[in-house]
Design goal:
Structural class: mainly alpha
Number of strands: 0
Oligomer: single chain
Radius of gyration: 13 Å
Distance between the termini: 25 Å
Number of helices: 4
Largest sheet: none
CATH architecture: Orthogonal Bundle
CATH class: Mainly Alpha
Length: 84
């Protein structure tokens, strides 16, 4: 995952799904592994940990629009890979 901006912390993440529910070989996990690191980082921070785009942008040291672009590209690629 891309590094956090110097001196920036996201704090405690929201509770994510029970890890035992996500099999290592699940289609979603495999699709996430195919994403570029920066896209995967934004997607995991947003949808797994529940951070806002603004929080993600501050943590990664990028503009909010960059986060939105990465999320959009990641979702599009996941849809293509998962056939949904």
């Amino acid at each position: 995952m891309a590094g956090l901006a110097a001196g920036c912390s996201l704090g405690r993440p929201a509770a994510g799904p029970d890890p035992s529910l996500i099999a290592e070989n699940s289609d979603l996990v495999q699709a996430l592994k195919k994403l570029p690191t920066k896209q995967a980082a934004a997607l995991v921070l947003r949808h797994y940990h529940g951070y806002t785009n603004r929080e993600i942008a501050a943590a990664l040291g990028v503009p909010e629009q960059t986060v939105a672009s990465r999320l959009g590209a990641a979702r599009k690629q996941l849809q293509a890979v998962l056939g949904r």
